Amino acid sequence: MALAAERQKFLLAIVREQGSARLADLVERLGVTAVTVRRDITTLADRGLVMRVHGGVTLPHRGPGADERPQHRSVLAHGRFPEQAFVGMVVPTVEYYWPAVIQGAQSAVAAAGGRLVLRASAYDATEDRRQVTGLLDRGVRTLLVAPTNTGDAGQDLLRWLGTLNVPVVLVERLPPPTLPTLPLDAATTAHSL
């Protein structure tokens, strides 16, 4: 399925039929990358048709008295964060091009009424994990992480990030081809601009 609209229609039909679907299963059924499926899910979630959950997608809960806001919608889908949004960000350094990336994240979070806490980790997978754990202990509800992603330690770190019960967005990193169903979103900038 090459066209986004066709994939999204198919994805929505699967979720409506089954009530939910795992990211890995959708990747296999659609024959596209996990990044493509995540983008399609985000598009549908932004339209309120599905709800993103860790590692998959479900129909939005619309029962009596239910909070109809999907828990893991795109953070800035409506220009604001959910109440009391607390975002943690872990970067490898605050030098080179990172100040502009950090400033962009801080501006977006502040403009949307959220709060961002920044940590640096010095290109070390063990330190990345320690910093993320510290932010989770402080109660962050969303993570923006530029993890060390090389070697066994980097791959293990990415797998661990994929198990967390909060939304995790890789910053300036893409999920590696060796982990095609990693349930993480990714955001990168065009440094050549």
Describe the structure concisely for a colleague.
The protein has 193 residues and is of the alpha/beta class. The chain is 38% helix and 17% strand.
Describe the fold and architecture.
This protein is α/β, with parallel strands linked by helices and 193 residues long. It folds into two domains: 4-58, Arc Repressor Mutant, subunit A, CATH 1.10.10.10; 86-187, Response regulator (Rossmann fold, 3-Layer(aba) Sandwich). It is 38% helix and 17% strand. It contains six helices and eight strands, in the order H-E-H-H-E-E-E-H-E-H-E-H-E-E. It has helices spanning 4-18, 23-30, 34-46, 98-111, 125-137, 151-161, and strands spanning 20-22, 51-53, 56-58, 86-91, 115-120, 142-145, 168-171, 185-187. The strands form two sheets. It has a five-stranded parallel sheet, sandwiched between helices. A three-stranded antiparallel sheet has the order 1-3-2. Helix 4 links the parallel strand 4 (86-91) and strand 5 (115-120). The model is unreliable at 62-83 (pLDDT under 50).
